[in-house]
Amino acid sequence: MTLEQLRIFIAVAEREHLTQAAEALNLTPSAVSSAIRVLEERYGIALFHRTGRRIELTETGAAFLPEAKATLARAAGADLFLTEIGGLKRGMLTLAASQTVAGSWLPPRLMRFKADYPAIDIRLGASNTEQVADAVLEGQAELGFVEGIVDHPALAQRIVAHDRVVIVAPSGHPLAGRPADAAMLTTARWVLREPGSGTRSALTAMLADHGVREDALDVALSLPSNEAVRSAVLSGGALTAVSFAVVEDDIAAGRLMPVGFALPERAFRLLRHKERYRSKAARAFEVMLP
Predict the structure, then answer these.
(1) What is the pTM of this model?
(2) Packing angle between helix 226-234 and helix 244-253, nearest 10 degrees?
């Protein structure tokens, strides 16, 4: 059964006249008659009584008419659905971002996109860099945003922003507001993000450049979020390395103080799968970014 056969059946059923139905459909009467005959023969039923020049619905035809109309309505709804998605009048944008990006850089851009495309449902998952890359690879997110370095041949990536990582200590810590060298950092206690996070990777890469292995640090706690790390460090006694955006207010208020050890600037990267289909919503969001 085809949608065209249903369309012809409904036109004939509503008019109970082949010629009038053919004119309404811009078809020949023979084409309309043939379509009805094929439908009846396929299922071994009679949809119409034919008495002389008259044609009228059988009981089966009358019972089938509401079903045929409902099916065409659903098909029209499906057509509208895809048309609206294609025009970004509805749809979904699924993103994954590392916590640093999700907590500071990304939200203003999501609000701007939502203002331009209010009917697009935006879903954002926040995790660490490794988990974001896995989400994009497995198709759980169309786009990913990370601050760590990702090396996978299936992922395309481009830089969309830059970030500054700082080492901070609570006020009163011996290194708070003072310059420090790599050896001094190994004598302090630390609270860090969990392994796999971009922030922790940035710190360990910097230490490696100074000949210091990560296992040389006295890591008291490894925590799964920037807020948890911030809260632990504010309680006193430990250093951490975080995005400046995470602790900017604490530094301004004097609750935390930078340690004088410069970390290199790092990049925020957009990740997407090279081969998976990208929706129009995902492409529109990419275009909006720098």
Answers:
(1) 0.69
(2) 30
